[in-house]
Every structure is written in structure tokens, then in C-alpha cells.
Amino acid sequence: MDPEKYQQRKLQRQKRILDSAAELIPRLGYDKASMEDIAFGAEVSKGALYLEWESKEALFDALLRREMGEMLRELRDRLAAGPAEAGLAALYTQSVLVLESRPLLKALYTLDSRVLGDFVRRQDPQRYTRRLLLSTEMLQRMQQAGQLRADLDPEVMAYVFSLLALGFMTIGGIVPAAQTPALEETAAAMGALVEGGFIRTGSGGTLSRAGLLTMLDLMLQQNGVKNDPQFD
Fold first, then answer.
1. Domain containing 193: what range?
2. For residue range 199-209, what is the model confidence (pLDDT) as tens digits?
3. pLDDT at 69
4. Predicted TM-score (pTM) of this structure
5. How many domains does the chain have?
6. Which residue in 6, 56, 111, 202 has a CA-CA distance of 20 to 30 Å to 192?
7. Residue 60 lies in a domain
8. CA 159, 189, 140, 199 torsion: positive or negative?
9. Residue 201 has what pLDDT?
């Protein structure tokens, strides 16, 4: 077989397998979703699945990396379509909304054992969760650009952002749906809150869209997403 066609077929097979796992694991949970189930959903043999990934753990790791890459790409697309001057509120709001829309990453961020099962106990969750939402490095860059208050530690700010996001994603089990405001309105209010607390006085509270996109491109590269055919 032509090497190029073989590689294309291999990538297509990998995508079908990952798509099948992405549908089954949030619904059944990591422990209950078997490799046989995933292979059946992908319309491949179990042997073909194991040729791509030697274990369910390795497959799930690849799936999480793909999900994080897709999340960052979606966030980048949303910001690219926004105004030329984008504030911290817009960046934070869109980050939370994108994460909320992805059940697998939401489960990872909240350490939902129903979805993640035994995987949580055998892996360091920080291997994945530290890549979600606003990173310390991104906040440092914004601070160096004169956008954020210089008297606050970027690690502390990143922790506060994550703390707010965690509450945003878990409060649904506490507050009745009838008392819950619209998702977009809540996220926007949270964005305005963090911007009001962390933006340096006189900075105008904005970053150029090009600057934000450059930072997201860096995050994509650090996560091994840029130029990786698995994410195309």
C-alpha cells in the first residue's frame, strides 16, 4: 500500500477510536467502558484497537490530550472572532464556557469519579488539570505587559480563577435549576468580577487580540497540539 494512503487510513482509524471513546466514557464511565465497547463503536476489531494503543489507560490519555487541544483551539477561535481589544473578562468567560461544554474535561477538572473511575487514583490529576483554564505562565505574560496588578502573585491569581471555575461547574448539584441564572450571564459576571479585582488601575483592562492569540498558540505548542495530525 502507498505509504501516504496507509498513514491517512491509520489517522482515520485513530480518530474513529477516539470518537468512540469520547462518546462512551462520559456516558458509561472509564471503568465500565471496555475496549471491546470502544472498538465496536469505532467499527474496528479489538486487535486493530490494540495496535494503536496498548491499553485503555494509554487510549484515555490520548483522548484527554485531544480534548484539551480541541478546547484550546475552540477558545482561540472564539477570541479570534471577538473584538480587536479583548479584556481579561472575555478571556476568562470564554475559558469557562468552553470547559463547561466539554463533559470529559469538566469531569477531569472536578475529579468526577463516576466518569473517571480508577483512572483518577492511578494518575496525577495535575498532569492534566494544570493545563486547563488560565495558566500561571499566561497570567505572568499579562502581568509583564502591564495589564494585571503587579502586587499579586500569578500563581495565587491562577488558583483563584480555578477556584471560581470549580464552583461554577459544581454548584448545579446544590442550587436548584429554577434558581440558576443563564449560563452565559453567570460566566460573564464571573469574568467581570475577576477583571475588576486583578486588572491594574489605568491599564484599560484590555489586551490586543493578537497578544491573546499568541499566548494561546504557545499553550497549543506546549500541549503538543500544533502540527500534530491527530488533532487535524
1. 67-231
2. 776 655 555 66
3. 86
4. 0.79
5. 2
6. 111
7. no
8. negative
9. 66
Three-state DSSP at 86 gives strand
Q: How is residue 173 written as a grid cell?
A: 448539584
Write out the H or E segment, with its range, that includes residue 60: helix 56-80
Cell 488560565 appears where?
134
The alpha carbon of 54 is separated from its chain's Cα centroid by a whole number of angstroms, namely 25
42 and 135 belong to one structural domain: no
Q: Is 83 found in the same domain as 49?
A: no
C-alpha cell belonging to residue 58 = 494509554
In DSSP terms, which residues pair with 199 in a beta bridge? 148
Give me the pLDDT at residue 14, please.
Answer: 94
166 and 76 in one domain? yes
Whether 49 contacts 35, CB under 8 Å = yes
Q: Which three cell numbers stand for residue 215?
A: 499566548
Would you place residue 210 in the very low, low, confident or very high pLDDT band (cuts 50, 70, 90)?
Answer: confident
Q: What are phi and psi of 190, to 5 degrees?
A: -65, -40
